[in-house]
Amino acid sequence: MSELRIGIGHDTHRLGPGGPLRLGGIDVPADRHLVGHSDADPLLHAVIDALLGAAALGDIGELFPDTDPQHAGRDSSELLELAAQHVAAAGYSIVNLDCIVFAQRPRLGAHKQAMGRRIAEILGLDPARVGVKAKTGEAVGPVGREEAVVAECVALLRTDGP
Ligand code: MG
């Protein structure tokens, strides 16, 4: 019998001056960028943690420590690909992903589909299995004050087999 496993991922990165915004594996035109050890893509990081969490394989910090210089400035799509390989090696397939990105500015509505398509491409999934939603911070809190961009992801996995 195939078993279903659910996982959740959440990530925050600070905004700094100068664009573009690296989000969901694409460059969104903006006058701010996200600051972090890798390419600081909170959406891909949330996806990685949701996948690892569903398979109980730890988290992104264990797999790719931010103290390791080889991850400095690293393209998070490579990290997602590696995390997905771990999940597949543990015997799981991805059923679907559902994601939310919280950014006050720029409005991400026009970029949601491209982010979803890119995530699907990295994971070798049908784009219909990847949902990406965008919300503002309603001008309050770290997102609303344009200090940070936050992303969340829920992943559903199933075990391979009969
Ligand atoms: Mg991160």
Descriptive report:
This protein is of the alpha+beta class and 162 residues long. It has one domain: 60s Ribosomal Protein L30, Chain: A (2-Layer Sandwich). The chain is built from five helices and seven strands. The chain has helices at 42-54, 60-63, 76-89, 112-123, 141-144; strands spanning 4-17, 21-23, 26-28, 32-35, 92-102, 130-135, 148-159. The longest helix has 14 residues, at 76-89. The model has no long low-confidence stretch (mean pLDDT 95). It binds magnesium ion.
Q: Helix proportion of residues, in percent?
A: 25-40%
Mean pLDDT: 95
> Strand-and-helix sequence, N→C?
EEEEHHHEHEHE
Question: In CATH's first tier, which class applies?
Answer: Alpha Beta
Distance between the termini: 6 Å
Using the alpha-carbon principal axes, give the shape: globular
State the secondary-structure class.
alpha+beta
For the record, the CATH architecture stands as 2-Layer Sandwich
Radius of gyration: 15 Å
Write out the distinct hetero groups bound to the structure: magnesium ion
Helix count, per DSSP? 5
- Total strands: 7
Percent strand:
25-35%
Q: Any idea what the CATH superfamily is called?
A: 2-C-methyl-D-erythritol 2,4-cyclodiphosphate synthase
- Main sheet properties: 5 strands, mixed
